[in-house]
Structure formats: structure tokens, C-alpha cells
Amino acid sequence: NNLKDKLKSLRFYKFYNGLLVMRKLLILSLLFMVSGCASFGRGVAEAIINDKKEDTRQCEIQGSPLPGIDDLFKNKQVVKVMMVHGVGTHTPGYATRIRENLALKLGLDVFSRRDKDITLIDPDDRKTVIGNLRVTRMQNEEASKDLIFYELTWSVNTSVQKRILDYDTSGLYEHKRAAFNHTLKKFLDDVIPDPEIYVTDKNNYILKATQQATCWMLSRSWSQLKPEEKQVCRVSSFNQMKDLSRDNIIFITHSLGSKILMDSLTDMVSTVAAVEARPDMAQSPKVRPIIEELKNKEMTVFMLANQLPLLQIAGAKPQVTGQIRSYCRPKGKNYGYRVFKQVNIVAFSDPNDLLSYGINQDFVDNYMDSRMCPSVTNVNINIAEEISVFGAGVVNPVTAHTEYDNDTRGIEMIAKGTENFKQNELLSKRCRFTHLKN
């Protein structure tokens, strides 16, 4: 019995020691795994934690001080803002976020109960639908600020052609791709065809949609628009020039929209120049004052995710280039033949946005019509936040291309401008402004 008791004690002792060894091994293993997990996830976790402490995204403005929407509210005058979207399929209402962000910055808290929708029709055949124009009115309580927001949607012109690629993101291939890659492929299939379709569009439906939207914006007041319209806007060049010379207008574009609007403005410049070239029109008592008003008019275009340089590769040059000094400086020999006093072009681009570009002065000189007197301000801005993964900086390129309309610095620039940059607490703290002079 004593021997049996001793053997039992010995077995228990060995079992107990085995548990202690296993416990130590388990603790060491857990410590190793925790340490490994910490190093594995530290980049993402620390990036998220550190991001809450300080926003280190860059914001550099290089160009001229510019007015914003708020600077145009003078003597209770109406300000008209038009939004032109870029690549990708859009439906009416896509500009709601930027519209409401601007309204918040401008103190506009009274909206029209119902938007007004205009179905845009091809003016040549009078039956083909080429887009939609949604119009919203926004005011402050005192009605001292009155803004009409025009949202142009032209995706109807590219949706049919893009169906050729529908099979690529159907069930035939979806199960063969990783989820992230499938989402990215679906995004690319939706956006890549649009520039090609625009450049090769023999009917110019997208450009016509922009011109028709501009015609409606210039020729009708809010009260003159019906809740729903479906017809061609036909207004003479004279009347469009008259309205353009008097209205307070701001354009906002995104990606491909920058090229579309620039082509529309270039066409407008050629039209005005053609009118002025006719002595019977140019010297008319009715026309001459309007032409002179245009020559002293300044307009601003905010181009988000600007793509002008990329899309100019396949485009034709304007009629008059390389003569900005001649047309736009008071002592220039063609100063009297300019069309506008100045068109301010504010080009927003995120270096991590793979589909946006800055604009250098060589491009302005060689690929913009000198008669519009273009002046470019580049905004080099990080829209998407950078995180660290395995010690390397990573930025989502899709976010970098699509989130301009929700960036507080960009919204502040459009709403308030940069003429009072030093007094603007938000911009002066989070952006750097470099004034470029001739």
C-alpha cells in the first residue's frame, strides 16, 4: 500500500509539473502571438488613432486671390451655380451632397419645396433625350441671399454604349474574382469608356446637353420655369450674350466635366467673336453695350478632380492660342477684341487621385483660347487620408477621386473664395496660399 501511495504521488507530481510546463509554454505562445498581432496591425491601428489627433493632409493653393459664391451676393442679386459631373454613371440628384454642403457654408436654410426638372432634347432632331437639368432654389431666411443651383446629368448619352461591358461584371466572372478586385473592375468598366465616348461622339450629344443646360440657365428665371419641361431651349445668340453679361454665374465640374465645360466655353467665345466680327451686329446700339459688358465680365470655374491635360491629348486646339498677353493686358494690341475680362479656372487635384491633373502655364498658353483671358489657380490637396500598412503609406485612389464634394477645405474655397485668405480661419490654418503674379 505504501508503494502504491508513493507511485500515485509520483505520478501526480509529474502531472502537476507537466501542467506547469504547459502553462509556461502557453503563456509564452500567447505573448508571442499578441506581440505578432500587435506588429501586424500596428500600422492600421496607429494610423486610425493618430488621424484623430491631427489632420496632416496637405493643401496648397497657387494662383490668384479669387471670389467665392458668397462674394457674388450683391444688392440681393441672384447667383446661379451649375454643376457638371464627370466619368461614371450618374442619375439626377447626384449633386445633393455638394449642394447641401455649400448651403450650410453660405447660411442658406430655405429650400424650394420641389425641384424643377428639365428633360434636355437634341436641338437638331428635336426628339432625342440628351440629359436632365434639375433646378433647386436656396435662400436664407431674410431672402438677402438667393442661389439657383443647376445640376446637369448627361449619363444617358453613354449608358447604352457601356452595356457592351456588362458581361464582364456579371455572374460569368464575379465568382472568379476576389471581392475587392471585382468591385474595382466594376468601377473601371463604368468610368473608363466615358472619355472615349465623349471624344468620338459624332453627334456631340454631351456637349449639346451642356449647351442646352446653359441656355435654360441663362434664359429663364426661377419663376419662369415649369415644374417639368421637355423641349428644346431656343434663344438667339444676342439674348444669350445679354443674359451671360448680367448674370452672376459660378460653374463647378468634376473630372471629365472639366473638359466638357471648357469646350462649351470655348464654343461660346467663338460665337461672341463671330458676332463682333460682323460690323452690322457689332456696331448696333443694342449689341455694342452687351459686348462691352462681356469684355468686363469675370467668371469662375471650380474644377474638381480636373482632367483637362489628359483629355486634351485627343482634342483639337482652340482657334486662338498663345496670345494671352496680347488679348488680356490693357496695353496689348488685341485687348479690345477679348471676349471676357477673365475666366478664373480653379483646378483641384489630389496627387493620390490617379485620374486628376494640375494645369501648368504652358498648357494655359497653348490649349486655352486666349480671348477668354484664362487665369489658372492650382489647388494641390489631399482628399483621401493616408494610412500606414506594413510601414508603407497607402491611400484609396477611388476615395481620392470621388470625395472632393465632401472636403471642408474645398467647400470653403468655393463658398468663400480666397480673397480674404488670411482672415479665413479654416483656410489659413489648414492650407498654404502662394500668390502668383505676372
How many strand units? 14
> Could you tell me the strand content as a percent range?
15-25%
Number of helices: 17
Overall body shape: globular
Question: Cα-atom Rg, whole angstroms?
Answer: 29 Å
User: Which stretches are low in confidence, meaning pLDDT under 50 for 5 or more residues running?
Assistant: 24-52
Q: Helical proportion?
A: 40-55%
What structural class do the secondary elements suggest?
alpha/beta
Largest sheet: 12 strands, mixed
Q: How would you state the average pLDDT, rounded?
A: 85
* Separation, N- and C-terminal Cα atoms: 109 Å
Gist?
This protein has 438 residues and is of the alpha/beta class. It has 17 helices and 14 strands.
Tell me what you see in this structure.
With 438 residues, this protein is of the alpha/beta class. It contains 17 helices and 14 strands. It has helices at residues 2-53, 96-106, 159-162, 171-174, 179-191, 193-200, 205-219, 237-246, 256-276, 279-282, 287-295, 308-312, 324-328, 361-367, 397-402, 408-416, 425-430, and strands at 59-63, 78-84, 110-111, 116-121, 129-139, 146-153, 228-230, 248-254, 298-304, 342-349, 374-381, 387-389, 392-394, 432-435. The strands form two sheets. Strands 1, 2, 3, 4, 5, 6, 7, 8, 9, 10, 11 and 14 form a twelve-stranded mixed β-sheet that branches. The protein has a two-stranded antiparallel sheet with strand order 12-13. β4 (116-121) and β5 (129-139) form a beta hairpin. α2 packs across α16 (408-416) and α8 (237-246) crosses α11 (287-295). The protein is globular, with a radius of gyration of 29 Å. The protein starts with a helix and ends with a strand.
